[in-house]
Amino acid sequence: MALIELKDLNKTYNNGQPLHVLKGINLSIERGEFVSIMGASGSGKSTLLNILGILDNYDTGTYTLDGTLIKDLTERQSADYRNRMIGFVFQSFNLINFKTAVENVELPLYYQGVPRRRRHELAMEYLEKLGLTQWASHFPNEMSGGQKQRVAIARALITHPQIILADEPTGALDSKTSVEVMQLLKQLNKEEGITIIVVTHESGVANETDKIIHIKDGIIGQIEENAHHDAWGGPLMK
Amino acid sequence: MRIEIIHEIASSLRNNKLRTALTGFAVSWGIFLLIALLGAGNGLMNSFMGNMQEFISQSITVEGWRTSMPYQGYKEGRDIQLDQADLLYTKGPRWQGTIENVSLATDFTGTTLSLNGYSVAGSIRGVMPDYQEQEKIRMSSGRFLNRDDIREKRKSIVVSSAQAKELLPKNPEKLVGKWVNVGNIAYRVVGIYSTDESNMTRLCAIPYSTYKGIYSPNDKIEAISFTVKGPETLEEHRAFEKEYTGGLKARHHIAPDDNRGLWVDNGYTNNLEMHKAARMIRTALWILGILTLVSGIVGVSNIMLITVKERTHEFGIRKAIGAKPGAILKLIIAESISITAVFGYIGMFMGMVACQIMDKTVAQDAINIGGQEIRMLVNPNVGLDVALEATLLLIIAGTLAGAIPAWKAARVKPIEALRAD
Question: Would the pTM count as exceeding 0.80?
Answer without folding.
Answer: no
